[in-house]
Design brief:
Structural class: alpha/beta
Distance between the termini: 38 Å
Radius of gyration: 17 Å
Helix content: 25-40%
Number of strands: 6
Length: 163
């Protein structure tokens, strides 16, 4: 298996790559930079092969009272967790389409548990978006979303424990 590691911290990428048994490349980029993502996707395709799996794992979380949290920091959370994940999918979509591959969105650790501080009441479960523990799979002319537990070993895919 060929692995391409993309991220902001070159040393961490290289350390991870050294722990892998197969060939890999490291590409330093920020998911909030669309141009860098497009260049990274092109580099993956050129230096290795078209991607068959893309994992959007970048994520940050902010805690604390909303009125005491800087608006720029909250915007950064949206830019990384939401927009960055979508831009990662967009950058690799041509390759995933060609290989009939998968896109796995993990986002931040905030997606896997509740905040350690009291939060305002949330809307009923029926109006909350699903947790991003699904993949887009290629079927026919388009993509569909499905749970793929085998791609997420050790991560429960059922409803959250709190409700």
């Amino acid at each position: 298996m060929h692995v391409a590691l993309l991220g902001r911290e070159r040393a961490a990428l290289e350390e991870t790559a050294a722990s892998l048994s197969g060939p890999s490349i490291c590409v330093e980029c920020d998911v909030t930079d669309r141009t860098a993502l497009a260049e990274a996707a092109q580099r993956v395709e050129t230096e290795r092969r078209p991607a068959s799996v893309a994992v959007a794992n970048a994520g940050i979380a902010v805690s604390g009272p909303f009125d005491h949290t800087d608006a720029e920091l909250r915007q950064r959370v949206i830019d990384v967790n939401l927009t960055g994940s979508a831009d990662t999918a967009r950058a690799f979509l041509p390759q995933l389409t060609a290989t009939r591959g998968y896109f796995l969105q993990i986002a931040s650790t905030a997606a896997f548990g509740s905040a350690p501080i009291p939060a305002p009441p949330r809307p009923p479960r029926t109006t909350c978006p699903p947790r991003p523990r699904t993949v887009l799979t290629r079927r026919g002319p388009g993509f569909r979303r499905e749970s793929r537990p085998e791609l997420l070993p050790g991560i429960p895919l059922g409803p959250p424990a709190d409700g």
